[in-house]
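Narrative of activities, Objective 1.

The group set out to show that a structural description can be obtained from nothing but a protein's sequence at a throughput compatible with the screening campaign. Below is one input-output pair from the validation batch, recorded exactly as produced.
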Amino acid sequence: MGKSRSTRRERAAAETVVEDVDGGRAELIPDRDRPRAWSLLIDGAPQSHVDLDDPAHLSFEYQRRLGHVIDLVAPPGRPVRAVHLGGGALTLARYLAATRPRSTQQVVERDAALVQLVRRELPLDPGARIRVRSTDARAGLAKVPDGWADLIVADVFSGARTPAHLTSGEFLDDVRRALAPGGLYAANLADGPPLAHLRGQIATAADRFAELALVADPAVLRGKRFGNAVLVACDHPLPVAELTRRAASDPQPARVEHGRALADFTGGAAPVTDAAAVDSPAPPPSVFR
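Output recorded for this entry:
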């Protein structure tokens, strides 16, 4: 009974934290079902969800899909070296630290004021080997030593759009440079009908990597609605069967496209270059209602 009353008091005491950061108006909203969990919104767009008591809990569907990739990047429990381009509330870095202790991680988050807010309100486990650098994602990636990373995750949005310079083949050249042999790249992409951005990103990755897979809600893949898709790329065979099993068992089941089916989905889209790159499309207002 005492624990239950304490939990209720914690929930009642938790208040939304609102603060202006470099990228806009940040809100940390308490999760009424989890006493030490919070959602981060920037200008009303959901960015992250963190449970300080259970950092292995991933609430957002696209983060669960990235979590599956993290789970499969190496044998269970083996520490890895990871680079996160885009930090938000550091959800995926916390997840990796909890599920693979002794991993070494670098987070590149341009919004220094957001980093300060998250560190203050949602402190990291002091034992986690997570270094946060406040700079542009591509500039931060350029400082990663050649062949250092077992995993690079790109989850960068500015105003709910991925900046153009993080969508090109030249950007992926630097991703490849920083990846260790056998390393894996995963990107959170957002698009809606007619899916031109998503198709272009797949074509760009196919021009740089030998193996690709795409994880997404079937309705997004059919062009029925705007949503997220996780693109996975590497130069060795992907664990497609296990990734498919995990994606299908999610509370919001996803489909995995791979091989010829993924090539057909691309529909002849051309790879994106720095010279032609544009920001990803803005989501319609209805997405966040």
